[in-house]
Amino acid sequence: MVGQGSAPIPLRPGAAGASANGDTGAAGGWSRPRLELLGAEDLRRTLDRLASQVLEKVPTSSRLVLIGIPTRGVALARVLAERLERLCGHPIACGSLDPTFHRDDLARVGTRMVEPTQLPVGLDDAEVVLVDDVIFTGRTVRAALEALQAWGRPRRVQLVAMVDRGHREVPIQPDFCGRVVPTTRQESIQVCLQAIDGEEGVFLLRPDDGAAIISQASA
After folding, report:
1. pTM
2. For residue 176, which of 45, 43, 1 has the smallest C-alpha distance?
3. CA 203 → CA 26, 44, 49, 56, distances in Å?
4. pLDDT tens digit string along 45-56?
5. For 78-104, what is each residue's pLDDT tens digit?
6. Is-contact 135 175, C-beta < 8 A?
7. Residue of 72, 131, 145, 215 with fewest CB within 10 Å of its CB?
8. Separation between Cα atoms, residue 1 and residue 182, nearest integer Å
9. Residue 73: enclosing H or E segment and its boundaries?
10. pLDDT tens, 134-155?
C-alpha cells in the first residue's frame, strides 16, 4: 500500500474531554488537556479530501465497499460512505469487520468485547477500502487483511486512516491518510465524531508527567 498522507502538522491546545478511542492504544487516566490537531471544520475538509481521493482511485464506484475496523473505524466508514454517495450519486456499500481473533499479539494487548462482522455484499471482485481512525503498529490492519480471506476474494484492498501516528511493526502503510502525526508510544490519538461524541475533531492525549506509563494496545 502506498501512502498518500500529508506532512506532520503543529499542535494546538484544546479543551479536555472524555476519551473516544478505538484501537489507538489509549487507556483511562488521562488528565492533561488535549492538544487539538484538527478542529471540526478541518476534520470535515479532511474527510471530503479522503472521499475524493478514494473515488479517484476506484475505476468503478458501484464495486466499492467500505469496511470499518472497530471501534472508531466503523463510524468513520459510515461518514465516508455518505460523502462518497454525494460525490458519485448512488449508495455505497458499507460494513464492518472485527479482526480481533486474527491478531498475533493478543497475549500482549489483551482482548476487548468482539463486535459482529457485518458485510452488506459479497466481496468477490469488489474494490474494498478498509477504514480505521488511527494506524499505529499496523498489526490491526494485518489482522483485518487475514480476516478478509474468509469472506471472498476482492479485486483490490486499500486502506484509509484518519491519522498515521507512526511506530509501525509490520510493513503496512495507508493508501489514503488524513494526517501524519509523530507521537511517542505513551501518547494517544483521540478521533471524535459528531454522531457518537457530540463533537468533532482530532486530539493528541498525553499522560501526566511522572505518572506510570499505561500499556498501549497496538493498532
Report:
1. 0.80
2. 1
3. 12, 15, 19, 28
4. 999 999 999 999
5. 999 999 999 999 999 999 999 988 877
6. no
7. 215
8. 20
9. helix 72-88
10. 999 999 999 999 999 999 999 9
Give residue limits of the domains in the chain: 44-184
- Which CATH number does the domain 44-184 belong to among 3.90.950.10, 3.40.50.2020, 3.30.1300.10, 1.10.10.10? 3.40.50.2020
pLDDT at 159: 98
CB 204 within 8 A of CB 185: no
The one-letter code for the residue type at 24 is T
Please say whether the beta carbons of 141 and 135 come within 8 A. yes
* Strand residue runs (E) in 97-170: 127-135, 156-164
3-state SS record for 21-69:
CCCCCCCCCCCCCCEEEECHHHHHHHHHHHHHHHHHHCCCHHHEEEEEC
Work out the number of other CB atoms within 10 angstroms of the CB of residue 85. 15
